Amino acid sequence: MRRTTLAAVAALSTLAVGCSSVPAEPEPTTSGADASPASPSAPGATGSTGSAEEPVDPDTPLSWGPTVGELEDAEALVAGWSSEQLAGQVLVGRYAGTDPAVPAELVRDLHLAGVCVTADNVVDEQQVLATTAAVEGAVAESGRDFPAVIGVDEEGGSVAHLRGVATDFPAFAAAGEAIADSGRRGRVAVKGAALATGLELRLLGFTWVYAPVADVTIGAADVTIGSRAPSDDPALAGAAVKQAVAGYNRAGIVSTTKHFPGHGGATADSHTTLPVLTETLAELEARDLAPFATAVEAGAPSVMIGHLDVEAIAPGVPSSLAPETYAYLREELGFEGVAITDSLGMGAVAGTPALAVKALQAGADLLLMPADTRRAHQTITRALDDGSLDRARVEEAAARVVALQRWQARIAQDRPVDDSVVEKAEAASAALREAAYGY
Question: Does the residue 76 lie in any domain?
Answer without folding.
Answer: yes
